[in-house]
Amino acid sequence: MKNIRASQERLAKEKANFEVYKRTEEWSAVATNKQVWSLTKLLSKERKLWNNACVRDNDKFYRLCQEIINLKAANAGLKKKEVAVVATLEEANLARNRIEENACKNLHAKDVALAAVNRRLLEFEVEARAERARADAESAHAAKGEENYQRMLA
Fold first, then answer.
1. How confident is the model over 69-84, as pLDDT tens digits?
2. Does residue 23 have a pLDDT over 90?
3. How far apart are CA 81 and CA 86, in angstroms?
4. Which of 10, 28, 38, 117 is 20 to 30 Å from 55 at the Cα level?
5. What is the dihedral of CA 46, 52, 53, 54, to 10 degrees?
6. DSSP 1
7. pTM for this model (two decimals)
8. In degrees, to the nearest 5, what angle opens at C-alpha 138 toward C-alphas 134 and 140?
């Protein structure tokens, strides 16, 4: 009987140890389960924060990309305008050069005509002086001839 009692005591002791072990296993499983759930919730929160940050960054990058596209389009438009302005400027410069050349030719032609008129004027002045000198000489000769005629009559 001693053996049976010792066996029963040992069995009770092992049952208590098994129950303690079982409880620690359950507690460990529950604690682990709670830990997994809290980590899952934390991971879910982090994932939401990460997704929100990605959405904000994507929106920001999309706006920046749109702005770059708009600026490239505006730049292309400005380049077309620049080409048109440069072409117009070159055309205006060519027209101005033609006008200047024509003005220089006209001025040269007028200078030539003016020189011819001045030359003719000088010729007329020389002829007029010569004519005046002849007229003066003739009138002096006529006056002398009249004097001589008067002397002859007297």
1. 999 999 999 999 999 9
2. no
3. 8
4. 38
5. 110
6. -
7. 0.43
8. 115
